[in-house]
Amino acid sequence: MERALAGPLFMLSAAVLFTLLTILIKLMGPAYSVWHIGFFRCFGGAVVLLALFGRRKNPYQGYNVPLLILRGGTGSIAFVCLVSALRMLPVSTAMVIFYSFPAFSALFSFWLHDERIGRMEMVCMAIVLGGVAILFDFELSGNLWGRILALAGGAFAGLTVTLIRSLRAHNGPVIIYLYFCTMGTLVTTPFFLAQPVWPATPVEWAMVLGIVFSSVTAQLLMNQGFFYCRGWEGGVLMSGEVVLTALIGILFLGDPVSWRFWIGGVLIFGSVVTLNRLKAGTK
Question: With bands split at pLDDT 50, 70 and 90, how would you rate the model's confidence at 168?
């Protein structure tokens, strides 16, 4: 019973904090590019983790270091794609498309872990892609790049979730996230140094610190949650973030709401929840 409650508790808590992170990123001023936000999150996160957990031994000593580096790289790409999409699209639309990632996680689990995918699971994944197509408006115009980046972020997030499953048996949540922060710092630092921008007001400092600490706490909770549930389960539980973010975007940020958003969103969210129930029945 404790294990059954621990996974959902960790994942839903992470979803709330990731919602806060998403809203803070959306509210950052135009002076802060994707690379600035990525640098603050990753470098700040690495500093926090090393300060808290790096005193007693080599903090980078983990099991299967190449896979830790790969997970850090895929997670960094997913984050850069998502932040870019948030800058181009309404936050609700970007997050609904991004949260197609449980379907990608199921595909990568099949390829990497030989998890069986039944007919109904395949139907659910097809419906997810149909929902994404509706949100794309079936047109190669407008904010096309924003939609493509949101979908690419979902694909890389699905791969990242699957890699975390491979790592979690022998690595704790801290080292998994530390490698993400380190790889993200390596990716974003050259772009940040090319045009450095630092917070100029107390409000901006508060937002940057909020990004750092909400991301660190949420990621550690999510990584810990994967010790208690499988990759596809964690992905579906984390889908609570898209509901919270969409509601905040619609109610407080003035996101436009059309029939395409509702139909596409219901197809995506409903399908990943159904996929979760189908997978639960195979245990």
Answer: confident
CB 131 within 8 A of CB 273: no
Q: Which amino acid makes up residue 251?
A: L
Domain count, the chain: 1
The pLDDT tens digits of the residues spanning 14-28 come to: 889 999 999 999 999
Give CA 179 to chain center in angstroms: 16
The DSSP call for residue 201 is S
Output the furthest CA–CA distance in the chain (Å, rounded): 55
Which domain range does residue 253 map to?
Answer: 2-280
CA-CA distance, 40 to 184, in Å (whole number)?
Answer: 10
Dihedral over Cα of 176, 178, 182, 185: its sign:
positive
* N-to-C CA span, the chain: 16
Residue among 247, 272, 212 at smallest CA distance from 21 = 212
Q: What sign does the dihedral 161-163-164-165 (CA atoms) show?
A: positive
Number of alpha carbons in the 13 Å side-chain half-sphere of residue 231 = 26
What is d(CA 201, CA 218) in angstroms, rounded to the nearest whole number? 25
Q: In a 3-state reduction of DSSP, which class is residue 1?
A: coil
Using one digit for the tens of pLDDT, what is the confidence trace for 57-95? 788 988 999 999 999 999 999 999 999 999 988 888 888
